[in-house]
């Protein structure tokens, strides 16, 4: 029959005879097999896939060929068959095949059908219908694949956001459970990587915008982050590095740019995510006390806020001041503490301190230098002088030294 005959002679809407459509239906399995064989030949990664995943691709391809034949009958509804095939594919398949790979597979399948379909045509008109049809159908399948992957990415993104919020909340609450580390691993975080927690006020933008801003800054510095917006508070966990050394020094200031008004406070860098709750605890303590230092830089390390934290009742800050200032001085004898205390009491005037102690000014200089070596604090620096004064006061209070 001619390819231009009416529907009453057995033609489809796209002017194919009933016999041609029947032959296509019988050959659909063979066409799908030829497509998969071409995929194995031209795509090296395809042959490395597990057998069950290749079988899934064959199933989708067979469904696609069957869908094409149905599409020839009813272009409006037949795409549903192939769309469902994409949706019902095993979830593991997406681990092996991304959208770019899917486009390659569709291209090869389309080329195979372009090559073999014309042989089923009864005349030139049918040959043209089949050639144009497979091109149009391939385009529709490509759009369907893109939509499917986009929906999966959106769903996965929403799930990842919830998982990330759970991890950040767990670290802030002080959890170090194995489940928390497993969730972080599912997000691509290396549990053995160093971690630094930085906290501050969240900007006025909506949470997704805040998270996107932080991720963009971290990505440009090639650093992983976990981000949580908890009401008016923004919590960021920065992975890797020491943040204090080399090019890592710029990490905290760059991330702090994403915070809202007020200073951001960073806890100590911990060797792994399992200990990140310590960094979070100190950062939050610093955030509560940072108002006591109006000229504090942003970001500021929680370790630089020890005096304010101690005055706010943070026992950990008191312990660190005792451990890093008082204990080293006491182990060296009474002379250093006596000299340091006197120097601070007389307002940092070296000659007055020397006369008060009945020693030579050079002796005072030597002792102050030795105290600085032991504590890392220079008594002539106003900020360090405050730290030393608070530490010495705490050292004289019984409750900070444990039971007598």
Summarize the structure.
This protein is mostly helical and 404 residues long. 62% of the residues lie in helices and 6% in strands.
Descriptive report:
With 404 residues, this protein is mainly alpha-helical. It folds into three domains: 7-154, no CATH class; 180-301, Alpha-Beta Plaits; 315-400, PucR C-terminal helix-turn-helix domain (Arc Repressor Mutant, subunit A), CATH 1.10.10.2840. Helices cover 62% and strands 6% of the residues. It has 17 helices and five strands. The chain has helices at residues 18-42, 44-47, 51-73, 79-88, 93-96, 99-116, 124-173, 178-186, 207-220, 251-256, 276-289, 306-311, 315-331, 334-345, 350-357, 361-375, 382-396; strands at 195-201, 225-230, 233-239, 265-266, 300-301. It has a five-stranded mixed sheet, sandwiched between helices. The longest helix has 50 residues, at 124-173.
List keywords for this structure.
single chain; 404 residues; mainly alpha; Alpha-Beta Plaits; Arc Repressor Mutant, subunit A; five-stranded mixed beta sheet; 17 helices; 5 strands; disordered N terminus
Shape: rod-shaped
The count of helical stretches stands at 17
How far apart the termini lie comes to 110 Å
Structural class: mainly alpha
Strands side by side in the biggest sheet: 2-3-1-4-5
Please compute the radius of gyration using only Cα atoms.
35 Å
- Topology as H/E string? HHHHHHHHEHEEHEHEHHHHHH
Please indicate the percent range of residues in DSSP E strands (runs of 2 or more).
Answer: 5-15%
Question: Would you tell me the overall average pLDDT?
Answer: 82
The number of distinct structural domains comes to 3
Pfam families: GGDEF_2, HTH_30
InterPro entries: CdaR-like_regulators, CdaR_GGDEF, PucR_C-HTH_dom, PucR_C-HTH_sf
Keywords: DNA-binding
Protein name: DNA-binding transcriptional regulator, PucR family
